[in-house]
Amino acid sequence: MRLVILGGGESGVGTAILGKKNGYEVFVSDYGKIKENYTAVLALNGIDWEDEKHTEALILNADVVMKSPGIPDKAPIVQKLIEKGISVISEIEFAIQFTDAVTIGITGSNGKTTTTLLVHHLLKQGGLNVGVAGNIGKSFAWQVAENKHDVYVLELSSFQLDGIINYRPHIAIITNISPDHLDRYDYDYNLYIESKFRITKNQTESDYLIYDNEDEAIQNWLKNNKIKANKIPFSLTTKPEKEGAFLEDNNINSTINNEQFTMPINEIALEGKHNIKNAMAATAVSQLLNIRKQTIRESLTNFQGVEHRLEKVLKIQGVQYINDSKATNVNSVFYALDSMTSPTVWIVGGVDKGNDYDELMPLVREKVKAIICLGVDNNKIINSFNNVVDIMVETSSMSEAVEIARRIAEKGDSVLLSPACASFDLFESYEDRGKQFKQAVFNL
């Protein structure tokens, strides 16, 4: 069996190792440059590879192709594979056939990473042999190759779900759905929503779907489509009919399998309404997997949070600097601004994915005293908010943006990096953007 892998990054190399271990003839092809640490691993494992090109003769003879999530379906090489009827799947789909581990699949436009790491934290504290993978850390395929864990918590993007045929998580979570990555879905929001719901399409009556019951896109889809999985909703405003989690008198209440769990929200380590929902989802998973209530409580209290997600960096002369570089869409920024309790200098901008800034208007009016644009093309941001804030500045480097923010901010204010955009115009990644922000703050 010939396994061809498109993309020589984390998921590609992990899949190559797993494929080789299971007797496949493996070839890795990357249109860009493969990093040296990965080429070294491929060489060590005797796996053939190429970069900066796709040699069709070596690709179109595949029995199965694993496509890395960053490569769009519209890529010419992918189109040729599809025309030839060659199966193109995701890393998760390939790897799942080689493990008996229970998986918890987590998707959504926002809150995926926080919820994934929170679930992992709760299950680990509960004594389970649990791994975390998907969009985070060491690839799922790589960990399966090393037979690491009994349970995996997987953060799954819509791109990873697009390449699924048979994969079914025992527990699926959809944190929320808002327009994102529409450039990859022909600017059709419904295609993106369908993509997210692929997470439950293979689930059976013995599986569970945990979801935000206040989310309009989720509600509409569930109204119009039947699923087999047991539904477990969570909400800040409504009680579930049977099982699920809700908010009452500032307590999280979660009922699963007739077991009730209650905890005051002011004891949860993470701040903000969206994090109450993330905590509800993680609690429901823990209850389904029979983690002790005391352990759930302690874990929600001592969880550290996620780097680049509303991360408090430093307080300088009474001004709090906050790194929310992971906010790459408007909905993420909505959560960030919503959780601000002081006048805010907002650093925003980057590569726009088709953003509509209208939903931020009330929050910007109420909380933002100045906007610092950080991007190559800031026209859309300027046009949206020019009449809403008094101060609007354009910058093209992080150090400049942070220095201007320092001059504008007064004691008691916050400086928030929450870009609403991808980072690729000025930075390597949102992590690089967040690290540069923190470095610039440390240099003040």
From TrEMBL:
Binding-site positions, ATP: 108-114
Annotated EC: 6.3.2.9
Species of the source: Flavobacterium ardleyense
Name listed for the protein in its UniProt record: UDP-N-acetylmuramoylalanine--D-glutamate ligase
Cellular compartments annotated: Cytoplasm
Cell division in keyword set: yes
GO molecular function, one term: UDP-N-acetylmuramoylalanine-D-glutamate ligase activity
Family assignment from sequence similarity: Belongs to the MurCDEF family.
Boundaries of every Mur ligase C-terminal domain copy: 308-421
Function: Cell wall formation. Catalyzes the addition of glutamate to the nucleotide precursor UDP-N-acetylmuramoyl-L-alanine (UMA).
